[in-house]
Amino acid sequence: MDAFTYQNGQLHAEGAPLAGIAAQFGTPCYVYSRASIEQQFRAWSAALAGQAHLLCFAVKANSNLAVLGLLAKLGAGFDIVSGGELARVLAAGGNPHKVVFSGVGKSVQEMQQALLAGVHCFNIESSAELLRLQQVASRLGIKAKVSFRVNPDVDAKTHPYIATGLKDNKFGIDIESAEALYQQAAELSHIELRGIDCHIGSQLTELAPFLHALSHLLDLQERLAASGIAIKHLNLGGGLGVRYRDETPPSPAEYVNAVRQMLKGRDLTLIFEPGRSVVANAGVLLTKVEHLKHSAHKNFAIVDAAMNDLIRPALYQAWMAIEPVSPRAGEKRCYDLVGPVCETGDFIGKQRELALAEGDLLAVRSAGAYGFSMSSNYNSRPRAAEVLVDGSKCHLVRRRETVDELFAGESLLPDEGG
Ligand SMILES: Cc1ncc(COP(=O)(O)O)c(C=O)c1O
Ligand SMILES: N[C@@H](CCCC[NH3+])C(=O)O
């Protein structure tokens, strides 16, 4: 399902015209479709029907409270990577017992917060982290449930900045040395071994790397079982890709079916941590053309959204579709769409054939994942508003930041006079 369609020549989010949203809430503005988020999450759940599982939405992909709240109501668990994300999950009504805590650098304070909240599992990425967790847990008198994130040295065939399953990446434990670590953990008083975890990268468009990694995990599970360590769950992380342009990623059902085939006969709970595949295509970034700038060899459309609002093009050279909200007749030109930020890398899209005039609205598609959640205040730009559309109703789920808020925590030096 595509929630963003032209109706009477106007781009809509479900039943709401994007031009109306821009008029009401201003631009730049993120717009999400409730139906689209729910449909994608349900596609994952349906694929796992009849299999013991936990679906933990990766909060980093889109951490707006309203989005987390919708998913919590559908029974989602959450994959978090910070104390801040845990606080968001709790504020959105998420169940802490369905939370898995990932990330290479958990602080003492964050471990404590997660233990007290009663999270389902810590995904541990080093022996140093294991020993720290043992200390914190024993101080609190709580047993920490743990899985080790192993690095299976599998090429995810994605952008190098978002590949995480190769030996050179900072993530996970070399799968060769994992067994020794499980043995060490089994001796610790406040650690309870639960699972094996991996996440080899994001925006994967083929099944083979996932299944290759899974085969390594199953080998490890067998070796551990032979040495008396029973594993209850396998966590395959996130990573399922989406279509930005012409990619043809597997559906959640195709992916999950292939995994279930390989699991046959084993009594294991499956955990997944999907982020992008749930929300990317459920969101757009709405932006307005401020100026057109033509020279002999280049046409620029300067829009009011910039790299601080959406960093994916600048950071990964990511291609995001850009569509006019009210397509106009007239000559198309080849434009680079750039933001107002003072960086040459500040672009939203390059070489796009569009007919444009000042004041036109554009929708940057597939912006529901790693859009607002990666935005910043660079150039002292307040962060965008976020709107969640439900049918023809538009809910402002985060108001635009104000300039005063940007420096509210700052202070001038004390007066040095007299
Ligand atoms: C540990 C972990 N789990 C889950 C995810 C979510 O990945 P994706 O958005 O590709 O599904 C990520 C991000 O890549 C991650 O680092
Ligand atoms: N932020 C990345 C995905 C990496 C997620 C972090 N594990 C993106 O926009 O594609």
UniProtKB/TrEMBL annotation:
Keywords: Amino-acid biosynthesis, Decarboxylase, Lyase, Lysine biosynthesis, Pyridoxal phosphate. GO terms for biological process: lysine biosynthetic process via diaminopimelate. It catalyses: meso-2,6-diaminopimelate + H(+) = L-lysine + CO2. The modification N6-(pyridoxal phosphate)lysine is found at residue 60. Substrate binds at residues 276, 312, 316, 343, 370. Its EC number is 4.1.1.20. Residues 29-368 form the Orn/DAP/Arg decarboxylase 2 C-terminal domain. Its cofactor is pyridoxal 5'-phosphate. Residues 35-280 form the Orn/DAP/Arg decarboxylase 2 N-terminal domain. Pyridoxal 5'-phosphate binds at residues 239, 273-276, 370. Specifically catalyzes the decarboxylation of meso-diaminopimelate (meso-DAP) to L-lysine. NCBIfam families: lysA. Belongs to the Orn/Lys/Arg decarboxylase class-II family. LysA subfamily. This is Diaminopimelate decarboxylase. The gene is lysA.
